[in-house]
């Protein structure tokens, strides 16, 4: 009881949120983490407005006012802050039997949750563009959206002309590489019906000024590519991993976040990317990647330098997910349970006796392990009527469901970790205050 009370004080979430979903398909844990981010990054007023939008969906300014009991100026300021940080979605909607139109506001939840990956994004910027690129990224992430001029002026004094020119060149390279994207200035959000003063967001600049924000999708694509390269390195070796990395760079401009297969590329393109590479050795390594199960790479056509290949990105991601899930099962339930889980993912539906036979374990032990995993929703069981006489039970794994459940667990872990950090910070500050007061 004391432990539960202590966890409650620290804000640690212990209840099951795996299958609870809000409107739009977002899990309760995603909503809670998003609200915590709003509270810590923007304060309680913005958090109250964000909570209404996350839980209710699209709302007008008037609806937010009725729900939150906040002053109109507070609501407008909150929406402007969210807009400044690219967290607001706006939809112009007509009113039935009326020529008037209203603006509904909603939260871009994926962009909100992306804020926990800001350190990773900054590291990507440093690797690509050096320390100057890192400082530019930090500045844009801090303000949400900025012009090139304002970004450069905030980092370098006006008299240092050479340093300013260097930063502008790096910023232009970020634009060319799609690491930053322009913010559309003239859109439906400027409608008079919204009753918001967007000069606050635009900082008094004319509508022709181009503002830029970090392209989160681009950063997420690079993180995904790194994970795919790491997978090839673990399964096949450094040489094959370097080839896949070079292939991703060759077709970088065509990559999308949720694509199944990459754009086709040739051996000749890889040889141009990898200097002093041997053609026959390159083809040999590519063929070794095509032989994996499932195949991560396929040869489309051609021979020699004209050979054309395609990367099966979705199969790589699915394999990565499965390896993560298997490692979690191993950690939580032990090696034998992990073997049973892997068997079910490979063979689909199996009876308990068959599982015991294939895993070389006693029936009683395999039954215990199966019911342990069933109680935590890692495996499922289906009743099957056999010969119209007796029931058989088939065990299987719903990998997508388990993946969603683990994602919710990860969000819960981040949520708890953030609360523990804040709790410990307040404890240290309280201790310091008491210590110096008594000493004084």
Describe this structure in words.
This protein is mostly helical. It is about 60% helix and about 10% strand. The protein has 19 helices and ten strands. The protein has helices at about 1-10, 30-40, 45-55, 60-70, 70-85, 110-115, 120-145, 150-155, 160-175, 200, 215-235, 240-250, 265-275, 280-290, 315-335, 335-345, 350-360, 365-375, 400-440; strands at about 90-95, 100-105, 180-185, 210-215, 265, 295-300, 310, 350, 380-385, 390-395. The chain has a three-stranded antiparallel β-sheet with strand order 5-7-6. Strands 8-10-9 form a three-stranded antiparallel β-sheet. Strands 1-2 form a two-stranded antiparallel sheet. Helix 11 runs antiparallel to helix 12 (about 240-250). The longest helix has about 40 residues, at about 400-440. It is globular, with a radius of gyration of 27 Å. About 25% of the residues are buried. Mean pLDDT is about 80; it is low at about 1-25 and about 185-210.
List keywords for this structure.
single chain; 440 residues; mainly alpha; 3-stranded antiparallel β-sheet; 19 helices; 60% helix; 11% strand; globular
- The fraction of residues assigned to DSSP E strands is 5-15%
**Overall body shape:** globular
- Number of DSSP strands? 10
Radius of gyration: 27 Å
The strand line-up of the biggest sheet is 5-7-6
Q: Can you give the helix content as a percent range?
A: 55-70%
Q: Describe the largest sheet.
A: 3 strands, antiparallel
- Parts with pLDDT < 50 across at least 5 consecutive residues: 1-24, 185-208
Count of discrete alpha- or pi-helical segments spanning 4 or more residues: 19
The secondary structure category is: mainly alpha
Mean pLDDT: 82
* Measured distance between first and last alpha carbons: 38 Å
Order of helices and strands: HHHHHEEHHHHEHEHHEHHEEHHEHHEEH
